[in-house]
């Protein structure tokens, strides 16, 4: 309601009190059209947020205005004064006891360091999103983008010097870790997800180096690697996990055991292990799990047995006996009738009823 509508309301009330029928009817008509005008203006204002589909920030702002959305603010418990130190030790626990394996460089091999051009650096600085927050160094994204012409040569010299000396400046390695609660009642250290806030300059540097590294990669990459590769998606990962199971079940006297392994503090990674079992021979399946567990121990990864689940698919009418459980680090893996993998519910009967009902 604006000032013009308020004046029309007062005029209508005055006409009603005066008892003049024509004046009252005219005041009501004026009020009716007076309300339509600001409503139409508000409608156009909201639609402006959706005209530019390439700007999701404006679209989300328009959606918030329409739905009157107010996000709930989660605050960390402040009663524990030692919480910051405890979080630091918890997030840095993988750095303890790590053995650095080094090898002598072959003197006969000539290594040419990556060299970046001012054009590449200028392009990276020009693509910086100015709407996001600055890093721990306090350098604003808008500054890097606005003055890309002046800063391109400066950062080119810094980046090339860092590459030639194989040393990253300390100011670029400084990272602010922000603990974000996974749910409202965060009590343990594992209830927080750490979000790293890194310098914007370092992000540009990493993207430039990444483009050179990708060009040097061989074409024979692991076919089961779907992340950070073009033309790959979660649908490919799901199909790769389900298709071998369906193909194997076409053979008589076969069953499937799918183990969804959860890796601790590995970006919520869930690795599926599909055991294609024939004639009740599970030796290869169990050896694969033991090998994976040993490899994770050698590479400082922790298998979370409590969050690891196993799904069994067995359509045999004469199932011989109860399937023996799987153990990881002495803990029994829980058997489930369905599991949500990459947003898709996979059930033990391989049907889509549960998945479609949750959409």
From TrEMBL:
It comes from the Eukaryota. CDD domains: RT_nLTR_like. Pfam families: RVT_1. InterPro entries: DNA/RNA_pol_sf, RT_dom. Residues 180-270 form the Reverse transcriptase domain. Transmembrane segments: none annotated. PANTHER family: ENDO_EXONUCLEASE_PHOSPHATASE DOMAIN-CONTAINING PROTEIN (PTHR47510:SF3), REVERSE TRANSCRIPTASE DOMAIN-CONTAINING PROTEIN (PTHR47510). This is Reverse transcriptase domain-containing protein. It comes from Hemibagrus guttatus. The lineage of its organism: Eukaryota, Metazoa, Chordata, Craniata, Vertebrata.
């Amino acid at each position: 309601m604006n000032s013009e509508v308020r004046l029309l309301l007062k005029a209508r009330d005055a006409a009603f009190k005066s008892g003049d029928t024509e004046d009252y009817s005219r005041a009501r008509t004026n009020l009716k059209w007076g309300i339509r005008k600001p409503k139409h203006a508000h409608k156009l204002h909201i639609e402006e947020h959706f005209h530019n589909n390439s700007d999701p920030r404006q679209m989300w702002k328009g959606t918030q205005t329409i739905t009157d959305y107010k996000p709930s603010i989660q605050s960390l418990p402040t009663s524990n004064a030692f919480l910051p130190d405890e979080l630091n030790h918890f997030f840095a626990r993988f750095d303890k006891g790590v053995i650095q394996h080094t090898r002598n460089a072959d003197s006969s091999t000539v290594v040419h360091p990556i060299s970046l051009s001012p054009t590449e650096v200028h392009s990276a600085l020009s693509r910086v999103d100015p709407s996001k927050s600055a890093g721990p160094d306090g350098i604003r994204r808008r500054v890097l983008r606005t003055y890309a012409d002046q800063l391109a040569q400066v950062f080119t010299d810094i980046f090339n010097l860092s590459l030639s000396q194989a040393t990253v400046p300390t100011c670029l390695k400084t990272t602010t870790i922000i603990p974000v609660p996974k749910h409202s009642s965060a009590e343990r250290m594992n209830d927080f997800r750490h979000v790293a806030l890194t310098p914007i300059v370092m992000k540009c540097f990493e993207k430039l180096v990444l483009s050179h590294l990708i060009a040097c990669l061989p074409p024979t990459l692991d076919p089961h690697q779907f992340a950070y590769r073009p033309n790959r998606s979660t649908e490919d990962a799901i199909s790769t996990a389900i298709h071998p199971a369906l193909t194997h079940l076409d053979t008589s006297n076969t069953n499937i055991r799918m183990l969804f392994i959860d890796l601790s503090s590995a970006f919520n990674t869930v690795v599926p292990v599909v055991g294609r079992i024939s004639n009740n021979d599970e030796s290869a399946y169990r050896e694969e799990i033991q090998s994976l567990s040993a490899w994770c121990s050698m590479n400082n990864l922790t298998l979370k047995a409590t969050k690891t689940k196993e799904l069994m698919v067995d359509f045999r009418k004469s199932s011989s006996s109860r399937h023996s459980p799987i153990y990881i680090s002495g803990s029994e893996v829980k058997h489930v009738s369905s599991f949500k993998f990459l947003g898709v519910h996979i059930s033990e009967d391989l049907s889509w009823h549960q998945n479609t009902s949750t959409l």
